[in-house]
Specification:
By secondary structure, the protein is an alpha+beta fold. It has 4 helices and 5 strands; from the N terminus they run βααβββαβα.
Length: about 150
């Protein structure tokens, strides 16, 4: 298996490569698949990226895209001097998850937003797809629990 390479790439330019991975990602982790179809808002992603509010770090095995971390970069509404990175996407193809691959991908994404001046990075995982060990190894601390309700 090829060694993984991590780099910053344009979300918008990646669309043809992202679409099949989004499908795999959605099938693996999304709840309510019978009522909430996968339908990315590509236009909004493009606007955010153009405004410098979106950071996409990719994982590639050779030339093949096999994972990504997408972070939304913004000022905290309660603390406007605090630049934050909030999670949007985090996925690595199962066949590439051995060893420290996920941790290295997350660290590469962190480095990219730290270079932008980010001071707080949040992580998030679904309770049915536990990533606590990954976030623990990366130095994150649990700070809140998110609840959702389909209406």
């Amino acid at each position: 298996m090829a060694e993984l390479a991590f780099r910053q790439e344009s979300f918008t330019a990646l669309r043809p490569e992202l679409e099949p991975l989004f499908e795999r990602h959605w099938r693996e982790v999304a709840l309510n698949q019978d009522t909430v179809p996968l339908d990315p808002d590509w236009d909004s992603y493009a606007v955010m990226e153009a405004a410098g509010l979106y950071s996409m770090t990719t994982a590639r095995a050779g030339i093949m895209l096999v994972g990504y971390v997408g972070l939304i970069v913004s000022r905290a509404l309660h603390y406007r001097t605090l630049l934050c990175a909030e999670p949007d996407l985090l996925w690595l193809a199962p066949e590439h998850r051995a060893g420290t691959a996920g941790l290295r991908l997350l660290k590469a994404a962190e480095s990219a937003v730290i270079a932008l001046g980010v001071k707080r990075i949040a992580g998030r995982c679904k309770l049915h797809r536990d990533l606590d060990a990954l976030f623990d190894r990366a130095g994150y601390q649990p700070i809140e629990r998110v609840y959702a309700k389909m209406v």
